[in-house]
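Record type: monomer structure entry
Structure origin: computed from sequence
Chain ID: A
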Amino acid sequence: QVQLVESGGGLVQPGGSLRLSCAASGSIFSFNAMGWYRQAPGKQRELVTLLTNSGSTNYADSVKGRFTISRDNDKNTVHLQMNSLKPEDTAVYYCRAIFDMEYWGKGTLVTVSS
């Protein structure tokens, strides 16, 4: 039905930047929401940011002012611009989408280390 393909993860130094992308493909008739979650080693999965069909955004307090979610106007794709990265941002980042139902990507690893 719907597949989420994540890209952009990798290794970056503290203070650096990284841009994640999540492209949704398949039978998509309505955009409700897309966003990002992350799961750090030894921790539970947590919300990073969410973008709704109304344009509203939510950010975790830990990433406010550093991370920005955006959506391409021509396709069901969202991006996560991550600036001023910290070692504690190291995690597997998962794309989440809500169309007809909830979908999850497989995750992409972001490692912030010197």
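Annotation 1: The longest strand covers residues 18-26.
Annotation 2: The mean pLDDT is 95.
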